[in-house]
Amino acid sequence: MTAFYNVALDLPHAGTVATRIVRFIETRTGSEDEGYEDLARLAEEIRDALFPCSVSGENPPGPEAIELRDRVAALARELVDRIESLGVAHDRLGQHVRNLFECLELGEEGAEISLRAGEDPNSIQRPV
């Protein structure tokens, strides 16, 4: 079993992390890269879905929060698939992915999927 951080659902901070992912993708990949548009679109879709939480600083009420979490997690899984297929994985990007999943209360999955997005398994940022 992979060690992971068990963090309470924090959709506002997930929005902050999603913005970091968008910025990373914008600065590390170029529009000339094949598949870039789809990668950027997925990252922006995640950020945009979380934007109302970022502005309010709060999770939506009960079931709405879980619905949003599940939708964002599905998009983030697609994002990681795209990162992997394009070969643009990077340690920092993987850390952002892990942080996103942690904020979604999916820390265990985040600790595993972040490796596919490029996080160094020996990073001091990873849980032990």
Describe the SSE topology:
Elements: H1 11-28, H2 36-56, H3 62-86, H4 91-103, H5 107-116
Helix pairs in contact: 1-2, 1-4, 2-3, 4-5
> Helical percent range?
55-70%
Total DSSP E strands: 0
The number of helical elements comes to 5
Separation of the first and last Cα atoms: 11 Å
Taken from the alpha-carbon principal axes, the silhouette is globular
* Range of strand content: under 5%
Q: What radius of gyration results from the CA coordinates?
A: 14 Å
Task: Please indicate the count of domains.
Answer: 1
Give the mean pLDDT: 93
Please outline the major beta sheet: none
- pLDDT under 50 segments (min length 5)? none
- Helix/strand-derived category reads mainly alpha
Return the string of H and E elements: HHHHH
Describe the structure.
By secondary structure, the protein is mainly alpha-helical. The chain has one domain (11-51, 60-116). Helices cover 68% and strands 0% of the residues. It contains 5 helices and no strands. The chain has helices spanning 11-28, 36-56, 62-86, 91-103, 107-116. The termini are close together. The mean pLDDT is 93.
